[in-house]
Amino acid sequence: MSALRGLWRLILGKKLDPFDPRTRQHIVLIALLAWIGLGADGLSSSCYGPEEAFLALGEHRHIALYLAGATALTVFIISLAYNQVIELFPSGGGGYKAATQLIGKHAGLVSGSALIVDYVLTIAISVASGSDALFSLLSPGAQTYKLGAEIGVIVLLIVLNLRGMKESIAILAPIFLGFFVTHAFLIVYGISYHAEGLDDMVAATWNETLQLSRESGWMFAVALFLRAYSVGAGTYTGIEAVSNNINMLAEPRVRTGHWTMFYMALSLAFTAGGIILLYLLWDAQHVPGQTLNAVTFRAILDSLPWDTHTSGLVLGVVLALEAGLLLVAANTGFLGGPSVLASMAADHWVPRQFRQLSSRMVTQNGVLVMGIAALVILLLTRGQVGLLVVLYSINVFLTFSLSLFGLCRYWWEQRLYRLDWKGKFAMASLGFIVCAAILLVILAEKLMLGGWVTVLITSSVVGFCLLIHRHYEYIRQLMLRVDQAYAVKPDWDEDAPPLKPDGGGETAVILVGNSRGAGMHALRWVLDTFPGRFRNFAFVSVGEVDKEAFNSERTLKSLRARIDNSLNYFTSYCASRGLASKTYQAYGGDPLGELMALLPQVFADFPKATVFASKLVFGNENLLTRWLHNQMPLAVQQRLEAGGREMHIVPLPIPEPAAPPPRVSIR
Fold first, then answer.
1. Fewer CB atoms inside 10 A, N or C side of the chain?
2. Domain ranges across the chain
């Protein structure tokens, strides 16, 4: 057993202390690392987004010049608008928080559900597309191993992300930087090679546009441009990643977020716009079995003064880096998806387990769910990139549109209070118009070509979240009744010091959770059931450092203060009744693990100890209620009794709701 734990520690790394200042330094990302970890999703879209847009133009290739400029401009428009999301929500959550707080909780639910599905598809499509690029360099017989390789890559990414964010980014950083450097060189050299013909190309583009408008009308020319512009919408996915994960960035978060967004926007606009321009300058033609990037880059490399063998070797390196970057982009899904799940769990849309952090301070449950869901989609689609692309773009532009509409609404409401509202409102409005237009065109183009699957999946996630939220709201009302019925209002000196316990006497160890009423019910049950038996009372509480608690040092201090106040409530109660008591507390991402590590210390201080914990009893407990609620009392009882320790679970009956006061009519 110890060997197995040692192997698991070797895979995931050592445990981190959430209250150690060095832990936060280890977790958070500076702008450069954030650009690598969060910007790869957007930058990798240049491997397929510009190609989709260029091919949609058909024989009217001259429009690609407008397309290159519009693509670069759109990247900056969305990025500048999303800087406002970073400013308003520096604790993270991005599109989900923006839609929730600026429009309403149900708009936030739709936005969050769309983001979850989008991040799962980010993992699946990035791994599938990267494998396609890599296996295109191998013999046709190797294709039979492609799906297995994709599964292995996702499993590897799961392990890397369970170890922590910096570990996964540090390993993948050379691939990201290698991609950007090689593609920047190819773009600069490829454009410079045809620099003398740029003026002629601009003039020819304008003349061909005028001719097209005379022959087919301006409406046809505009419609053709908008169709290609929208088909290439995959180019803009990933821009929202910074706002979703701003809580991962180093302080000052907003400034770091702005720099990260700038790096991302600049690199994506340069790469995507530059590649479209290369297609036009080098007259790229579609070749079966090859991407337009491969065709164009081969032509550029062949123009350099080296032999064909060297050119082919360098092309292989470039395409391998493209495949590698797509894998880095898949890692973005493991960063953004769990973050959105944690934010939604805080609002009770998804099971609260998605707020929990592992010993490596990552949302372990979220990483596993995102990875498993991506594996399922990969298997169902057999890794077909064409099908995954159809599913991919709809959700991210749904989130874009909701977030930017929320910003428009916010700045309009602030027009009486903020002098700078006009500029911010104008930027948010421009971003909303662009994103909403792209979303409408995508739906019109792709809804019947597989887009309906995305709509169905996202709608199912929304329905599932509504059921969970309804259940948690019901439980919240129950716990309010528990606190009202069982929590004793202090009628004693709360500052009275606890009486010193006798370590040799019998001791009741009471596990205290978030509800004072539940803890007091357990204490009074012990006093009533075993009158005079216990000479000491030990109160044990574990503070769960989840995603929300780890957002800032202030939140961690608030958590510790809440635990201290709760434990002081019980010890002062005991002191007022002449009962000796002592408290124990621990903090971590795994409450059960922290509790089981703390109890041996309690047993060492009080050898004659019996453990008690209260548990809410449902009349019709089922698999769903067991999954949605912490079953720690049962898990602790099982482990303690296996070790020869006695533990009692105190049933916590639900009190009847208080009757409303009688209505008095005044005549």
1. C
2. 29-452, 487-652
The encoded tokens of residue 250 equal: 């180093």
308-348 per-position pLDDT tens digit: 888 888 988 998 888 888 877 787 788 778 878 888 887 88
> Any idea how long the chain is?
667
Domains 29-452 and 487-652 share a fold: no
Res 630: pLDDT:
57
Whether domain 487-652 has CATH 3.40.50.1820: the reply is no
Kindly list the distances between the CA atom of residue 279 and the CA atoms of 33, 230, 376, in Å, as whole numbers in the listed order: 31, 18, 36
- pLDDT per residue as tens digits for the range 14-56: 555 444 444 444 445 667 777 776 777 778 888 877 888 888 8
- Angstrom distance (rounded) from CA 342 to CA 116: 11
Residue whose tokens read 């007259």: 283
Cβ–Cβ under 8 Å, residues 536 and 508: yes
For residue 555, give Cα distances in angstroms to 113, 395, 551, 562, 660: 26, 32, 7, 10, 37
d(CA 575, CA 494): 9
Strand order in the sheet with 580-588: 580-588, 536-544, 507-512, 609-616, 647-652
Which fold does the domain 29-452 belong to in CATH? Answer: Amino acid/polyamine transporter I (1.20.1740)
pTM of this structure = 0.74
**Separation of alpha carbons 651 and 259, rounded Å:** 54
The pLDDT assigned to 426 comes to 93
